[in-house]
């Protein structure tokens, strides 16, 4: 299956590039670049974990090549969560236990911050550390600390003005609101979903709307801070603290606004949040220099790049591109993010020579105060790695042809056409746009008027526990649980036998191997009769557009038969010269003695002797192929029951030779047969007109997606 998935993604990327031509050239950032960044991060983060004492947290690089450190119990400091966050991202990317150990080692000392009521920055401290820890381990200890921290943050809410007060340390401010707080609101939103007070969500929304009204200018530029009278709510001051002037736009503050309104939309689906996110994005993109990395303040005459702002915005734009309704803007935002990542991963910004302990050079902390100017910043590194991880999980932009889930059943239903009968395979990519969901992808007969879940025979669900499962008769179940994450793309393959009333489902996570989710599950109990696969329904659980489906296809599945006549299918005339045949094969048992063979259209296929080309699933549990007078294999490839293998055959009919490549579910393509000779004594083969699937008993293996076509100029083993 791996080859098919890779080919499909390549087609999507090509389509995305074509669409992007209307919005500017596509940049060079790709999966190879993301892998290279991960390797640099592995080396630097492992070294930092060795050199920095536990309970101390990197903040910014110093001239001597070491980190400036902040202790776990510094209540005013805001950056302690980012180093453990980087470690969790490395564990998420690699799955290696050592990274989890490191991440837990630097996460748990931050427990001391859970009762901190002196600052608004608890989101920065806890979401990269405890938030990622809970998502990746499901350990309830982390959830409980997050809830307590959210409660501490909520104590800073002023109901008179409707904001979270940022801080108490500046005697010149009475009730200050800074744009940075938009990032900390996620702690309240997450907690309200996960066992905390429902009112915390309202606090976050009210604060965001006040930020929109008082810190976002009509043209999309932003102020940094506004100070209120705590009794009347009147504005005392509006301007900047870390920017160039009260009328300028401080780059990192603007990044917090763009990211913050995007995450508010993720949690609320409030159109006001999306409109604001787009407004600040469009202003920012219109002010970018050629390398897509901004000056520390968009209006400052003093030139000094800030890589941290670019990293924050790149990560946010990869998410925002999924939400905007306009197809051109989806691609434009995606391409802008890749432009930023392309620059940040270049030698100009990515430190591969270890001149700094951090990843990104040229970050700016507080330029007016002369603090942390032209340095590595731990938060810049964190959001850079987050952006790279987001790209790795979703490597193409949304496309105009994508389908989105809907609450209304009529709007959620897509017609698949008639004639989809017998044994079928449906394939598609699904991208959840939120988490957790309670959403279903279901199938029904073309004659059914779908108005309820009970009318769907086959249902694939993303459940509230964060896992895929499948309807099996009267209940949902999973042969092997598969977790899902928002903004990650999963490939789904469903094989359904309409006659038997059973279906199986496989899911391929990003960068992983295909997993059997449902093994011959029964159609939903009580669903209407289904004679064809005529409709697919993308049903949301709470709001529209909770997930996206791409590249949905339905094709026939052919099963092996015990008789040669029953197992033979006509492929049509004209299949001459040098040909390429491709398909997926799934053995349903192991071992077996099955053959996939090709014969001339005029041959009478009553035995294997009539097959000029033969691929065998042998009794020894390996694939082999017939070479003249015997079965052989250039490279042995074992097979397993219920695993799917992609097969590519190049046959040179005039030369009487053929080559076969096999791609296992989780490995690269392997050459199985290198210019093997057609079977000695087989009938003269001028065309490939017949395909035979022969086994000892019916249904011991299946093939799907069979294609056959000419390959002009190709050689069987080039």
Automatic annotation (TrEMBL):
Q: Which UniProt keywords apply?
A: Hydrolase, Signal
Protein's name according to its UniProt entry: Alpha-1,2-mannosidase
User: Can you tell which superkingdom this protein's organism belongs to?
Assistant: Bacteria
InterPro entries from the entry?
6-hairpin_glycosidase_sf, 6hp_glycosidase-like_sf, Glyco_hydro_88, UG_Glycosaminoglycan_Hydrolase
Q: Does the keyword Signal apply?
A: yes
Give the record's GO biological process terms: polysaccharide catabolic process
For binding substrate, which residues are annotated in this chain's numbering?
121, 180, 240, 252, 256
Provide any one GO MF term from the record: chondroitin hydrolase activity
- Active-site residues, as the UniProt record annotates them: 121 (nucleophile), 180 (proton donor)
| Signal peptide positions on this chain | 1-28
**Entry's family note:** Belongs to the glycosyl hydrolase 88 family.
- From the record, give the transmembrane residue ranges: none
């Amino acid at each position: 299956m791996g080859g098919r998935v890779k080919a499909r993604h390549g087609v999507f990327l090509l389509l995305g590039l074509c669409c992007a031509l209307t919005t500017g050239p596509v940049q060079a950032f790709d999966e190879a670049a993301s892998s290279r960044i991960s390797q640099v991060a592995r080396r630097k983060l492992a070294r930092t974990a060795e050199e920095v004492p536990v309970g101390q947290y990197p903040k910014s690089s110093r001239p001597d090549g070491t980190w400036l450190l902040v202790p776990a119990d510094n209540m005013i400091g805001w950056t302690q969560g980012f180093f453990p966050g980087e470690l969790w991202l490395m564990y998420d990317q690699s799955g290696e236990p050592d990274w989890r150990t490191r991440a837990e080692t630097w996460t748990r000392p931050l427990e001391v911050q859970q009762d901190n009521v002196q600052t608004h920055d608890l989101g920065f401290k806890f979401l990269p550390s405890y938030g990622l820890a809970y998502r990746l381990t499901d350990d309830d200890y982390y959830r409980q600390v997050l809830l307590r921290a959210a409660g501490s943050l909520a104590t800073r809410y002023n109901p008179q003005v409707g904001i979270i007060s940022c801080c108490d340390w500046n005697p010149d401010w009475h009730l200050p609101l800074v744009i940075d707080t938009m990032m900390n609101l996620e702690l309240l939103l997450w907690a309200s979903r996960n066992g905390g007070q429902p009112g915390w969500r309202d606090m976050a929304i009210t604060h965001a709307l006040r930020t929109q009204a008082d810190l976002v200018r009509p043209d999309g530029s932003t102020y940094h801070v506004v100070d209120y009278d705590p009794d009347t709510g009147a504005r005392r001051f509006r301007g900047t603290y870390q920017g160039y002037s009260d009328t300028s736009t401080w780059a990192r503050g603007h990044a917090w606004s763009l990211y913050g309104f995007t995450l508010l939309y993720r949690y609320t689906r409030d159109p006001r949040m999306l409109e604001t996110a787009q407004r600040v994005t469009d202003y920012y993109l219109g002010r970018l220099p050629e390398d897509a990395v901004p000056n520390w303040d968009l209006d400052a005459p003093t030139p000094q790049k800030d890589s941290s702002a670019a990293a924050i915005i790149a990560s946010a734009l990869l998410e925002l591109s999924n939400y905007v309704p306009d197809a051109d803007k989806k691609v434009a935002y995606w391409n802008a993010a890749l432009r930023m990542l392309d620059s940040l991963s270049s030698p100009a910004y990515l430190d591969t020579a270890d001149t700094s302990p951090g990843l990104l050079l040229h970050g700016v902390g507080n330029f007016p105060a002369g603090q942390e100017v032209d340095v590595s910043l731990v938060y810049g590194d964190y959001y850079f790695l987050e952006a790279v991880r987001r790209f790795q999980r979703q490597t193409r932009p949304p496309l105009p042809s994508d389908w989105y889930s809907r609450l209304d059943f009529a709007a959620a239903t897509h017609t698949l056409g008639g004639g989809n009968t017998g044994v079928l395979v449906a394939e598609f990519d699904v991208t959840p746009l939120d988490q957790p969901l309670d959403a279903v992808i279901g199938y029904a007969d073309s004659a059914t008027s779908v108005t309820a879940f009970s009318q769907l025979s086959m249902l694939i669900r993303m459940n509230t526990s964060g896992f895929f499962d499948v309807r099996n008769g009267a209940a949902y179940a999973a042969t092997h649980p598969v977790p899902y994450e928002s903004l990650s793309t999963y490939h789904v393959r469903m094989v359904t036998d309409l006659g038997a009333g059973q279906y199986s489902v496989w899911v391929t996570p990003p960068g992983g191997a295909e997993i059997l989710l449902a093994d011959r599950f029964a159609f939903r109990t009580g669903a209407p009769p289904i004679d064809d696969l005529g409709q697919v329904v993308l049903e949301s659980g709470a709001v529209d557009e909770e997930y996206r489906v791409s590249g949905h296809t339905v094709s026939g599945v052919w099963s092996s038969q015990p008789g040669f006549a029953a197992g033979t299918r006509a492929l049509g005339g004209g299949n001459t010269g040098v040909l390429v045949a491709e398909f997926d094969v799934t053995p349903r048992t192991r071992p077996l003695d099955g053959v996939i063979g090709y014969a001339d259209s005029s041959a009478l296929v009553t035995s294997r002797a009539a097959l000029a080309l033969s691929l065998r699933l042998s009794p020894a549990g390996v694939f082999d192929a017939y070479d003249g007078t015997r079965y052989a294999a250039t490279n042995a490839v074992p097979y397993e029951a219920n695993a799917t293998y992609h097969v590519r055959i190049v046959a040179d009919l005039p030369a009487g030779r053929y080559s076969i490549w096999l791609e296992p579910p989780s490995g690269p393509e392997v050459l199985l047969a290198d210019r093997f000779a057609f079977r000695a004594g087989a009938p003269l083969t001028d065309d490939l007109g017949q395909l035979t699937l022969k086994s000892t008993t019916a249904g011991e293996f299946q093939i799907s997606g069979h294609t056959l076509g000419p390959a002009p100029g190709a050689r069987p083993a080039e």
